[in-house]
Structures are given as C-alpha cells and as structure tokens.
Specification:
This protein has 200 residues and is an alpha/beta fold. It folds into 2 domains: 2-67, TusA-like domain (Translation Initiation Factor IF3), CATH 3.30.110; 85-199, Hypothetical Protein Ychn, Chain: A (3-Layer(aba) Sandwich). Helices cover 34% and strands 21% of the residues. It has 6 helices and 9 strands; from the N terminus they run βαβαβββαβαβαβαβ. It has helices spanning 13-25, 37-49, 106-122, 147-155, 164-169, 184-193; strands at 2-5, 30-34, 54-59, 62-67, 92-96, 129-132, 159-163, 180-182, 196-199. β7, α5 and β8 form a beta-alpha-beta unit. α1 (13-25) packs parallel to α2 (37-49) and α3 (106-122) packs parallel to α4. The longest helix has 17 residues, at 106-122. The protein starts with a strand and ends with a strand.
Length: 200
C-alpha cells in the first residue's frame, strides 16, 4: 500500500499529491497522511468526488486517510463531473485581470492567485486559453512568481496571451516572457468561441 506523506504541506498540495498517487496506482489503495483539518477535509472531498471509498484514522496530530479498496476499487456512485456536462464541450477562457485574487489583503490575493494557477496546471486539463489584461499583464513577464505554472500549462497545450495595450501602458512589452501579444478584437473572438469564460 502506497503512503503519501503530506504533513507540513499547505493547500492544494495534499490534494494534488493524492490525485497523482491515485492516478499512478491503477486502482490500488493508498494512504494519504495530512496534519490539519482543512487538508483532511479537502482530501476526503476529492477522493469521494472521484468515486473512491475513503476512511480516516487519527494518530496524534496526523490523519491517515485510506483511499480505495483493493477488492472493489472505485465505488459506483453518481458524481457530476465537468467533463460529462454538455455545456462544457469547448475550451474554457480564463481572463486574468489583476495580479491578485479577490479584494482585501494584496499579500493574500497574490498568494491565492499563485496557488490557483499552480492548481490549474496540476488538473491535467488541456487546450484551454489564458488571457492576461490590465494588472494581470505583469504575470507573463520577467520575474513573475507564476511563470513555472504558466510554462506547465503552455506545455499542456494551453494558449497564453497578454493584452498589448496593457503591456504598453505598464511599459512591460520588452519584458514579456511567455505567450503572445494579443488585442481586444482577438479577445472578443475568443470569448465568443469559448464554451465558458471565467474572469479572475
């Protein structure tokens, strides 16, 4: 039985590590070890949403989450998955309009956006679109804290584009590091052709 030790790791790393282990184990059970309630809850939710049986055993500050069953594998449960939805038959367009996620603390917002793009890169989704506008234009430029995630997405077939007018406004055109320069007309066409548009 494979042990995935996630102690000391913050969200979303425990869920991502658990997903990888389940993908690699071909139905064999695994034990995901976490050391906080949030990670325990998130790993359990993920496992059950994918149709796995999951049980928790606590030892001290650690939670040992056994996922799957060697004899039965995945349970037959009704789970609504995005890929089964008829409305999601085309690519998704993500419009990133700032260098932070949400409103409030800028420090927290930047950390959340970095985590979001990292998690997005780990989902395994392919051939979607990321367009960076306004304050988000800096994220595709040199010294961006999210370049590693963007490179992973690009290598998975995602298109990455940044508004040329925004790069000009912020004097960033010479610092663009990943993706291509786009314009508002092309962005409108992408929005019209996308199955779903998500603005961040």
């Amino acid at each position: 039985m494979r042990i995935v030790d996630n102690r000391g790791l913050k969200c979303p790393a425990p869920v991502i590590n658990t997903k990888r282990a389940l993908d690699e184990n071909s139905g064999e059970p695994i034990v995901s070890v976490v050391d906080n309630e949030v990670s325990k809850s998130n790993v359990l939710k993920y496992a059950r949403s994918q149709g796995f049986h999951a049980e928790v055993r606590q030892e001290g500050a650690a939670f040992f989450i056994t996922i799957g069953d060697a004899s039965t594998g995945r349970e037959h449960v009704a789970v609504a998955r995005i890929e089964d939805s008829p409305q999601s038959s085309g690519p998704t367009l993500y419009l990133v309009t700032a260098d932070e996620f949400g409103r409030g603390s800028g420090e927290l917002g930047r950390a959340l956006l970095k985590t979001f793009l990292y998690a997005l890169a780990e989902t395994g989704e392919r051939s979607n679109h990321l367009v960076f506008l306004h304050g988000g234009a800096s994220l595709t430029c040199a010294d961006s804290p999210v370049l590693a995630s963007l490179q992973k997405l690009q290598s998975s077939g995602w298109s990455i584009a940044t508004c040329g007018a925004c790069l000009d406004f912020y004097s960033l055109k010479d610092k663009l590091t990943i993706g291509e320069v786009t314009n508002m007309y092309s962005i409108v066409l992408l929005m019209q052709s996308a199955a779903k548009v998500i603005t961040i």
